[in-house]
């Protein structure tokens, strides 16, 4: 089975698999990482035609890029490889802030290339916007990486509409990565119209609401002890908010049963139905969940289906902010 392709961006276009794979959870955040299971999942993804892989230097920290690099070492030509810089972390995992300075851009890229074991990155994102550095300076340094052949396409993550416009004026931005799912739709007001006006593709991360839309999470205690979703950093998974949000998931599951698919497949199919310029990157560290996600490509949603989904999960029905601390999000 192979997936279809979609093209991100019109000024600096990058053709990728219609569904990508977020690799973060293979190393950190969602419970215990398992390197071999992660490598097996990436290999299976490539076999299934899921060739758009997403990582970042801060995942692990640093270990996720090495894992991805190991997994693709003999299959580099099949892969559209995306990584990110800007969230600075120490070797001990400490968070050291955001850095968008030109010097850091260059240093971070060289370090990522070395960890990944590749000579170029297909799509290089600024992971978070640095409020202390004009976006024109950051993009100028990223443009230098393109001119040097180290990077082919540029992207932004969690950038506001104004920042996107200013960045795109320096060098064409191929993709914006930001959170988008049935549970997170605030970008529809200003950001989505802006990227479409400028010809920039959209790469939704957490298209399954950090896993809650799969129906696999039944309670707070169903998460692993080390899972960051158990903490206040993710308010939607706490107390009464979780109960309210699980009630919405139950409605999604009902509709999925009617369609003969899983709740997660229905939720992913909804994201995919938002436009051919949208390429979600659901993350998983297990082959079986990857295979389930790929099945979403075969779920065709009619206008009636879409209306029923909108009715079941009205925009704004979700309880809780997506992060406990939204201070790093460019608004």
From TrEMBL:
Domain of life: Bacteria
Any one of the GO CC terms: cytoplasm
InterPro entries the record matches: Aldo-Keto_reductase, NAD(P)_OxRdtase_dom_sf, NADP_OxRdtase_dom
Keywords: Oxidoreductase
Molecular function terms, GO-annotated: oxidoreductase activity
Name of protein: Aldo/keto reductase
Start and end residues of each NADP-dependent oxidoreductase domain: 19-312
Coiled-coil stretches: none
């Amino acid at each position: 089975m192979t997936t279809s392709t979609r093209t991100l961006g019109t000024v600096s276009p990058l053709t990728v698999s219609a569904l990508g794979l977020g690799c973060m959870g293979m190393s950190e955040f969602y419970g215990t990482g398992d390197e071999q299971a992660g490598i097996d999942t990436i290999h299976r993804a490539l076999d299934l035609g899921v060739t758009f892989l997403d990582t970042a230097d801060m995942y692990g920290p640093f270990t996720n890029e090495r894992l991805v690099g190991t997994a693709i070492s003999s299959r580099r030509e099949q892969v559209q490889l995306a990584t990110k810089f800007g969230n600075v972390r120490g070797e001990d995992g400490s968070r050291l802030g955001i850095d968008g300075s030109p010097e850091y851009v260059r240093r971070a890229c060289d370090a990522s290339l070395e960890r990944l074991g590749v000579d170029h990155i297909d799509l290089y994102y600024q992971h978070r916007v640095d409020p202390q550095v004009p976006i024109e300076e950051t993009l100028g340094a990223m443009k230098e990486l393109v001119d040097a052949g180290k990077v082919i396409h540029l992207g932004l993550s969690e950038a506001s509409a104004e920042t996107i416009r200013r960045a795109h004026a320096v060098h064409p931005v191929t993709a914006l990565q930001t959170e988008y799912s049935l549970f997170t739709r605030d970008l529809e007001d200003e950001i989505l119209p802006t990227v479409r006006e400028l010809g920039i593709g959209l790469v939704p991360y957490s298209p399954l609401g950090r896993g809650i839309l799969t129906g696999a999470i039944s309670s707070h205690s169903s998460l692993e002890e080390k899972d960051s979703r158990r903490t206040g950093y993710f308010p939607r998974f706490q107390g009464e908010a979780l109960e309210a949000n699980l009630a919405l998931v139950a409605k999604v599951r009902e509709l999925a049963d009617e369609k003969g698919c899983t709740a997660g497949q229905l939720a992913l199919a909804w994201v995919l139905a938002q436009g051919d310029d949208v390429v979600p990157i659901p993350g998983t560290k297990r082959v079986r969940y990857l295979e389930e996600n790929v099945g979403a490509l075969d779920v065709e949603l009619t206008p009636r289906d879409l209306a029923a989904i909108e009715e079941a999960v009205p925009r704004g029905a979700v309880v809780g902010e997506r992060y406990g601390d939204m201070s790093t999000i460019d608004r």
